[in-house]
Structures are given as C-alpha cells and as structure tokens.
Automatic annotation (TrEMBL):
<keyword id="KW-0375">Hydrogen ion transport</keyword>
<feature type="transmembrane region" description="Helical">
    <location>
        <begin position="33"/>
        <end position="55"/>
    </location>
</feature>
<keyword id="KW-0472">Membrane</keyword>
<keyword id="KW-1133">Transmembrane helix</keyword>
<comment type="similarity">
    <text>Belongs to the V-ATPase e1/e2 subunit family.</text>
</comment>
<dbReference type="GO" id="GO:0046961">
    <property type="term" value="F:proton-transporting ATPase activity, rotational mechanism"/>
</dbReference>
<dbReference type="GO" id="GO:0012505">
    <property type="term" value="C:endomembrane system"/>
</dbReference>
<keyword id="KW-0812">Transmembrane</keyword>
<dbReference type="GO" id="GO:0000220">
    <property type="term" value="C:vacuolar proton-transporting V-type ATPase, V0 domain"/>
</dbReference>
<protein>
    <recommendedName>
        <fullName>ATPase, V0 complex, subunit E</fullName>
    </recommendedName>
</protein>
<dbReference type="GO" id="GO:0007035">
    <property type="term" value="P:vacuolar acidification"/>
</dbReference>
<keyword id="KW-0732">Signal</keyword>
<dbReference type="InterPro" id="IPR008389">
    <property type="entry name" value="ATPase_V0-cplx_e1/e2_su"/>
</dbReference>
<feature type="signal peptide">
    <location>
        <begin position="1"/>
        <end position="21"/>
    </location>
</feature>
<dbReference type="Pfam" id="PF05493">
    <property type="entry name" value="ATP_synt_H"/>
</dbReference>
<keyword id="KW-0406">Ion transport</keyword>
<keyword id="KW-0813">Transport</keyword>
Length: 70
C-alpha cells in the first residue's frame, strides 16, 4: 500500500511557491493579474499531478492479466 506522503510533500512545495508568488510579485498596475496567474498555474499543475498520481496508486479497477493464446 502506498503512502500519502508524496501528495502532502508536493502540496507543501506548491503552497510555498504560492506564498512566494504572493510576496515577490513586482509592484505595479498588473500586480494582481500576475499574482493570480502564477497562483492559478501552480494550483492547476498540482491538481493535474495529484489526480494522475493518485489514479495510478489507487486504480478504479484491478489490473487483469491477459491470456494470450498461440
């Protein structure tokens, strides 16, 4: 049985990246747009990775062995 640690560790990394995007976005008229785009990109990438990872760790169906007849 696989652990949930990789999912949580990557989540912490993504949250740290979001905090970095929040605090280190340059000041200016487009600050909110840049900040939102960076944080939304990180969130979408994490969700895509997590769904793919968890689907491989816990598949909906058990793998079946195919019988090949010669």
């Amino acid at each position: 049985m696989s652990s949930s640690w990789p999912t949580l560790i990557v989540l912490l990394i993504i949250l740290a990246g979001m905090a970095g995007a929040w605090f280190f976005t340059p000041k200016g008229p487009q600050q909110t747009l840049i900040r939102t785009a960076c944080m939304l990109t990180l969130a979408c990438c994490y969700l895509m990775w997590a769904v793919t990872y968890l689907a491989q760790v816990h598949p909906l169906e058990r793998p079946r062995r195919l019988l090949v007849e010669e």
